[in-house]
Design a protein that fits this description.
Subcellular location: Cytoplasm
Enzyme class: oxidoreductase
Shape: globular
Number of domains: 1
Pfam family, one: PAPS_reduct
Family: Belongs to the PAPS reductase family. CysH subfamily.
Distance between the termini: 52 Å
EC number: 1.8.4.10
Amino acid sequence: MSPPSSSTALAAPVPAEALLAEARALKDAPAQEVLAWVEQRFGARAALASSFGVEDMVLIDLARHHAPSLRIFTLDTGRLPPETYELIEVVRNRYGATVETFFPERARVEALESSQGYFSFRKSLEARKECCAIRKVEPLRRALAGREAWLTGLRREQSVNRAAVEVAELDREHGGLIKLNPLAAWTRQDVWSYVKANAVPYNSLHDRGYPSIGCAPCTRAVKPYEDERAGRWWWESREHSECGLHPVR
């Protein structure tokens, strides 16, 4: 059999370094343009990691127009507030979206709760990180298996730990995937202006003073003078307000 002609041969895969260079060239581009690039380069091989906070809802709405092949997944820790589950159903019905759900490994959760109780994460920073590792970090690894790129709703303004977030990064923690944060430069006002202008649904907890929403026992409303992530693990020092999904550099 003769080899395929150049017009029918499969295109050679683009090295991650070249893809990263392309993505970083979009650092000042609108989020819509970043998503359009994701659609062109990755299609369904890219996925949005969604906790269904307001930033993720903006990305879901934008993707409907600019990256319709983008997959959506969530990490169901077993401790999410009911308002989050209600919003997931809204997303499924309004956008016709399939939300892939990844749970923690049953045996590890059972062992943790049997030996340490239901609130072990409040005993120490190490205990909290252990809980996050079981309920979030390990499921994320499974969620990203086979993907080539993933997107998040990280913004620089959210906290001091996120001040250096780039629009595009090489995620070495997960095998060199391209990690994209299309809203990195957006302000809180930018986010809510988009939500209002486009009638984007959002978690009702945002109206009750929760700018950042995670597991119910680890999230509270914030005071007007506090940063957006002050309600996450509020009993710890502010520099520790990450769960391990997005390592602090």
